């Protein structure tokens, strides 16, 4: 259950700021099931928007008119996030840069884990990393925060799949300098991806996948 934790955080924040409540937006780095399983808990919550799972849903909500090339600001009221379309791992993927903390939230596209890249999405993934690098090069990013930990503290070493424990687990945060590594490696590989271990991640090609639609299918009348 995710909602009880969110409700507690909102209640605590509202009490400190003498507010009754605040609007809630439930958005995702991308639409793989492990990232949106809690959505149903918020569907009936008042003053709450649950952002859809297709690229068009994400583009419409954040007012991105040229997906995936346009990077847009999203205001939280005295605090601004930059929403960066980063398809490749998945077609609706975004990264988010918080201008206040200078944290880059990277979803499943970069972090201490397997960077799953479908073979036919090599250019899309590469273009996304280039887009992030271009935005953040002068932003003094404090840390990159991904969504998983699948590595040990030994550079390039993965924790076995379905391991029951994670001894010597890598920390979640990785330095901004790590962004240049996949960028350089993916440009060198071109469209012929190979598995390649780096200090803080492993490039992990996957079989080509069917191209996903930009928008959900129109329901029958």
Question: What brief labels describe this structure?
Answer:
221 residues, alpha/beta, three-stranded mixed beta sheet, globular
Detailed description of the structure:
By secondary structure, the protein is α/β, with parallel strands linked by helices. It folds into 2 domains: 1-53, no CATH class; 63-206, no CATH class. Helices cover 23% and strands 20% of the residues. It is built from 5 helices and 11 strands; from the N terminus they run H-E-H-E-H-E-E-E-E-E-H-E-E-H-E-E. The chain has helices at 3-16, 33-36, 55-62, 122-136, 180-189, and strands at residues 24-26, 48-50, 72-75, 80-85, 94-98, 103-107, 114-118, 143-146, 173-174, 196-197, 202-206. The protein has a 6-stranded mixed sheet with strand order 3-4-5-6-8-9, covered by helices on one side. Strands 7-11-10 form a 3-stranded mixed sheet, with no helix packed on it. Strands 1-2 form a two-stranded parallel ribbon. A hairpin with an 8-residue loop joins strand 4 (80-85) and strand 5. Helix 4 (122-136) runs antiparallel to helix 5. The radius of gyration is 18 Å and the shape is globular. The chain starts with a helix and ends in a 15-residue tail after the last strand. The relative contact order is 0.14. The mean pLDDT is 95.
């Amino acid at each position: 259950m995710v909602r009880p934790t969110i409700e507690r955080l909102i209640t605590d924040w509202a009490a400190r700021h003498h507010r009754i409540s605040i609007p809630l937006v439930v958005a995702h780095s991308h639409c793989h099931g492990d990232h949106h399983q809690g959505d149903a808990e918020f569907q009936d919550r008042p003053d709450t928007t649950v952002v859809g799972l297709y690229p068009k849903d994400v583009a419409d909500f954040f007012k991105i008119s040229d997906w995936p090339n346009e990077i847009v600001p999203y205001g939280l009221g005295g605090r601004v996030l930059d929403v960066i379309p980063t398809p490749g791992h998945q077609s609706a993927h975004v990264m988010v840069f918080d201008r206040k903390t200078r944290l880059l939230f990277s979803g499943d596209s970069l972090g201490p884990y397997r960077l799953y890249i479908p073979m036919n999405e090599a250019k899309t993934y590469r273009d996304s990393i280039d887009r992030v690098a271009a935005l953040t090069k002068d932003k003094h990013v404090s840390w990159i925060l991904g969504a998983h930990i699948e590595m040990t503290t030994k550079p390039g070493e993965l924790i076995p799949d379905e391991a029951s424990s994670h001894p010597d687990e890598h920390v979640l945060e990785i330095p901004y300098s790590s962004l240049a590594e996949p960028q350089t490696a993916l440009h060198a590989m071109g469209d012929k991806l190979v598995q390649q271990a780096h200090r803080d991640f492993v490039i992990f090609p996957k079989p080509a996948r069917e191209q996903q639609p930009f928008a959900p299918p129109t329901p029958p009348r």
